[in-house]
Specification:
about 270 residues; mainly alpha; 2 domains
Amino acid sequence: MNIYLLYGALILYLASTSLYLFILITNKTKMEKVAHYMLILGCFVHLLSLIVRYFQAGYAPITNLHESLSFLAFCIAGFFLYLKKIYKIQSMGIIILPLLSLLLILALAHPAEIKPLPPALKSWWLPIHTVFIFLGNAIFFVAFFVSILYLIIERGIKKKKKLTFSEKLPSLDTLDRVNYKCMSCGFPFLTIGIITGSIWAGLAWGSHWNWDPKETWSLITWIVYAILIHNRLTIGWRGRKTAYMMILGFLFILFTFLGVNFLMKGLHSYV
């Protein structure tokens, strides 16, 4: 049942993507509400799929690659809706939604079989720790693409080359403010995720920190974003410097999320 709902969410996300592309090409802004409501409906159906899988599995569905990619996509969709409401960045839909759809396609391409949890994961700390981590990752996922767009637009302005549809894209100032919002929201989630993970590790393994590869790379990622926030608040880092650090931080997140699982073995190697 949850897989059918997931396919339904994907269809709605793709429909919303198509509408945003249509709006960008034709400038028929009246369709923005339809695209917006398609996204909301997709998000709702996606949430239903997660709830159904939770009851089918009996645990928070964030334990394998299929579930992780699906939950990450849901978090990104929710955060993008939040940003749209604050900054009116509808045109970003043509960038975020295809990537969101791709994550869901990748999730559906991986085995969706529900398996018994390893003993160490049978804890209420599983949803607490993983939800915070995934919310932080989703927010910085959005920041990564906002930063890339910032650098592309800035380069076009410096070279006095007008980019296609540039007048419909957010201004550099808006993109920088979006990045700051991502920083101020994503960093606390990432911090709480690491802290709750440490508490859980102490209960499960008898030690709050084991220098497991995933723990180590999570700490490195946290330090990168901590440096960025410190420099933003103390010496006024903005614009290009923020964008470059956001990109660097996300590359560390990507390695921690996927690279560590495939390249290194440790206490977090369950799938």
